[in-house]
User: Fold these one by one.
Assistant:
Number 1:
Amino acid sequence: MEEHAPHSTDGMSPASTEADPLLADLTGPQRDAVMHTEGPVLVVAAAGSGKTRTITRRMAYLVRCGIPPWSIMALTFTNKAAAEMRSRVMELLNADPRATRGLTVTTFHSLCARLLRRYADLAGLPGLKADFTIYDSADQASLVKRVLESAQLSASNWPPRTVLSAISAAKNELRDAGAYAAQAGDFYSKTIARVYAGYEKALRAANAVDFDDLLLLTARMLKENAAVRGECQRRWQYLLIDEYQDTNRAQFVIASLLAGTGDGRRPPNICVVGDPDQSIYAWRGADISNILDFERQYPGARVITLGENFRSTAPILSVADTLIRNNKQRKHKDLFTRRPGGERVQIVLCQNEQHEATLIVDRFKALHSGVEERGEDAPEGGLPWREMAVFYRTNALSRVMEDAFRAAGIPYVIARGTAFFEREEIKNALAYLRVVANPADEVSLLRIINTPARGLGDSTINAVEVYAAHAGVPFFEALRQAPRIVGISARARGSIQRFVETVDGWTAGGSFMGEGVSASLADLVERVIKESGLEKMYQAQAKAARSETDAERLDNLDELVSSARQFELEYDPTGDPANDVEPAGAGVPPGGAPPPLLSLLRAYLESVSLVADADAVDPSQGAVTLMTLHAAKGLEFGAVAMIGLEEGLLPHSRARESDAALEEERRLCFVGITRAMRHLQITSAKYRTHRGLMERTIPSRFLGELGRQHVIVSDQSDALADLEETEWGSRPAGPDRALPARAASPLSVKFPIGSLVRHPQFGVGKVLSITPGANARAQINFRDVGTKTLVLSMTRLERIGG
Ligand code: ATP
Ligand code: MG
């Protein structure tokens, strides 16, 4: 690869390129992508070939070339990736924070949330105000339920999730309720259209949007409002997009409108990178044609491929390649690495999920202690925990793994960034904060109006709702007018008044100005937790301590305060398109700047709403990461274990629907494999508990598609842990070829008759007899489980005496 002459857009000689820290350790094609700074650039390249690295370098390079940072925007797939990219750019530019002031590195959803806030008033979106709330799926479900109720549709015939996914699919294709209704022909879609319209109305009344709205409304705003579009295009003249293969229709439109068509003389500076083989979000509307059509969309685009893989060893790459070749709908790309060696990929067939977890824990322990770390570029000693990860297809598979790691005392983190914010106490506290930021947010208001209990029952709430609907005022406004509402007891009225006064106290009646308003976001959060009565309520629960969860709730609330404090410390308004600070002239958002506390609160609530599972990946914690395959996109680990390679799990049962869905599952498997740098273990359990029942599984078809050359299959699915010939991995001829690199025979010497041994699963036992040879077996009498015959090379025996 290095023989490509470095591209010299800026007239640099190859020699100076070699000395340039931003360019020196890039391949020719990578340099091309970095230095081709004007005009559209498309990088289509395989996993681990340096696409993300190229984007990061390109950003630093642009800044160094004198392009104002505020005119550069990079869009990544997760907040975590965005944060990493930003700090990497800073590092590359010698950590001078001023050098990157105003640089926008964000996700599509965050960008849209901020653009909508900034331009809410200009955008002509009926009912949308800058303080809108972003509803998560639970909020959406409760809203849809209310809409179904009022339309007299039963939730059992019209499951909210199903209805919502139809609405979501429509929004991702940029079809709003009106467009949906216009196309609805049959009873089913006409009904969905009706619910869609009701749902939209309810969202707008609550001054709320859902995730899909963020994209849909922004796309519409950029399309319809030339002033907003012009302002954005003038600001961001350099657009960079990672993981472009996973953009959906709405994101494609947004990217195209932001890039524009250039200024007449020059085409737009849009640089996208992606890999069609890693497209894993078609089920959420991602459209691979966005990347495939790039050249058509931008004629004259510079197209660059990066052939070399820098991440994985040859066996891992080869296994990935063999698998993905089974996809028919693809254009082949060669994957190659120049690094020699590397151990083979291990496929282990195990008995059940506990056995699977034990095997992985054992393997990780061995890697950590350094026993298994081999190869030319293996680090000294063992592999740190943070460089290991377990991937699974669905979150349900994490529990048994977690138990095993906990029991073994190995630090682990589950990449479920959303989990914290799904806890009851956190949702309650956030609901208060959302009402503070947006009093029209009815879903949040209904959540907290009687939490903690303040004597406001269903009949009171009903009366307020009816009043609000009749008077055409938001629910919170109706609460203010409670004295006028008939059918409310005097006690309830007093209680409502106190509630309203409390909320008003935090915001100084909604002005967020003057005395009595907290100085900082963290103070506000603390006050809200106290003065709402939540703290007292959970203190009482903790005293009664019915469960561990109850006892933890106060700690979690403290943690929320800390998270607000950290957010406040790290918040950089200059990188927030909602507070456009540069260039001069665009200083204040239309409608005037909101009070600082309110804009901080909005930004905080927004960050909480847009948190993703992958955001919880934090190598600095020094722990093994457990995560879904989807969340693993873009990451890399020294050692990876992929579990649950069984039909119905991976490929997921959803794949039965179509060949396209099956190919997407295969790509997902490919994404998992290509995260591994040096060690990859893939497991499949013979039995797995499904809904409380132990079921016999069918091994994933993907196992058979991994090729035989670079894998070692170890069948331990029999309780005797005997070596079986398997359909896809029968032992090749010759003594030890299919066995792990450890020679088998010395093992029989290591465990002489009469020695005491420990087996990870069967416990302590005594060796009764040994059958030496390539597949040396030992007959062992275990204290707890009786006599078993084990193939020594396939079991992890430890001699403990005798
Ligand atoms: P994915 O498709 O999985 O997102 P990618 O194409 O974005 O992968 P990167 O994550 O950018 O690939 O790079 C993969 C690994 O290779 C990283 O560890 C990166 O630092 C390293 N790498 C990339 N290019 C080079 C290079 N020219 N020299 C040395 N290492 C490199
Ligand atoms: Mg990448």
Number 2:
Amino acid sequence: MCGIVGAVRNSEASGFLLEGLRRLEYRGYDSAGVVVINHAGALERTRTIGKVGELEQALQRSPLTGMTGIAHTRWATHGGVTEPNAHPHICNDTLALVCNGIIENHESLREVQRASGLTFTSETDTEVVVHQVYLHLQEGLDLADAVRATMKELQGSFALAVVHAGEPGRLVVGRQGPPLLLGRTDDETFVASDINALLPVTRSYQVLENGDVADLHDTGCLIRNDRGEIVERPLHTSAQSGDAVELGDYRHFMQKEIHEQPRAVADTLEGRLLGDRVLEDSFGAKAKEIFDATRQVQIIACGTSYHAGLVAQHWLEYVGVPCEVEVASEYRYRRHAPREGTLVVTISQSGETADTLAALEEAVRQGAMGTMVICNVPESSLVRESDLAFMTHCGPEVGVASTKTFVSAMTGLLLLALVLSRRHGFDAGFETHVVRQLRTLPGALESALAMEDAIAEMAQAFGDKAHALFLGRGAHFPIAMEGALKLKEISYIHAEAYPAGELKHGPLALVDEKIPVVAVAPNDLLIEKLKSNLEEVRARGGRLYLFADPASGLVESEDVRILHVAPVDSAIAPIIYSVPLQLLSYHVALIKGTDVDKPRNLAKSVTVE
Ligand code: M6R
């Protein structure tokens, strides 16, 4: 989703700006642009639709020269994917601005601005922001004051960066929602939406708080809060590697990340187990105090992370911990009846998902006893805002489709269930048993990955299909949901997931020989129930594609294709069964020739509502 980079340098800025955009590419975008203040004190702008590579080529043809500049990757919200809609937006040839977020009152502001004689060259909500800053400059305000005055008039959630042609060596940025990080060296200052873009120049960074406006010069920067008071924000040092993530021998990052899962899970478990026990310090310094007070768990997340939460609900309730799971975008706007001792657990790969952040804020406002995040990005907003953090330690995930972070988040959630099981008087032998199973996880994941060739062959049956159904029962229903999400997001095949027992209450009407029905069939307590449901599909001419335990008793036939998953204990089975579904969607996407790592319309990090 939109990314911002900016710099006040003592050498040419465009190289850093372009590299910064490249490092924000993973967030998802559809156009990109850059502005610098040239050596004659004029704005020079280049914008392109498509990849940052297009922008790079345009800059090679006509380089931009200047030491102060801003750049942006745009993920369209208001207005189509066109060059005029790409940022930076310019007002009166003197003021340029980039924005990440949404301005809700853009229509009313536009009317007033039109009445003042300003004209528009784009369909975006952002253009009203640059006009509004311009109007305040016309009133005689200084650039930073004009930005602050504008921010007070905007409704919505946004981060912005502004340069003025008449003030080379100055860059003003403001935050009211999506994160903005400042980086400094001795004689240069930088801004970016996340740390990846800053790493080529510095590891030290400050995070602006909501309402902050920062005035960046080559010698440093002055931050004022929403009341106009000068403030200092803590200086952090990033532990992240500055190296760009390499694809190696893989064709796509998604494929690489699927294959990294045994190592990712081993890293998630590293230092978290001692003998047959889970170390509760893994969740943070205040873990004991918060877990002692936990009476129930409320999980909040979006997309794949939400599916991990649904699996965890089975584990938590199994050990006696009441648990609810909610989609963040719904939770944030709902009134909640307070329940004493609620631990709110958010799950997020990026730690920057706008809805999850807002839901966390709402949960705290409504009196959550404690908060915890399961996250893959240590320097993210959710980690900063939560009492406890369990880091998945998977390393960067580049593919938009979450894979390794899904299995690692589930692993972390299983550890949480074990730690809480002790306080709910659950049989201690269970922890011992599950910890032993957890130690087998990397090996079991390797076995699941060994199914790839057979899955690639199975995928052939899906290339010409428009729809697919995914079935599962119990903790494997969320795994079916995740399988359906993976298939639709990277192959654009419409896919829906159902608890298998629910078929006859409606979806069975869809079943015929044209709709493939995928099911996960571990040999658990529900296997006989599932088998009956699968017979209901067969009886209606449905074609079944099954990932099943060899002991499940399922038999292959003309209309039933079965790939066996090596036997696995039911405590960790959902983690293992997610792998064949990832591989299936990946190979279907290869057949369909889609952009696997950057599927259309999607962003890795969803930083707007
Ligand atoms: O970064 P988060 O885990 O908070 O992201 C939430 C969803 O946008 C994300 O899980 C999304 O559904 C997946 N990338 C889809 O594969």
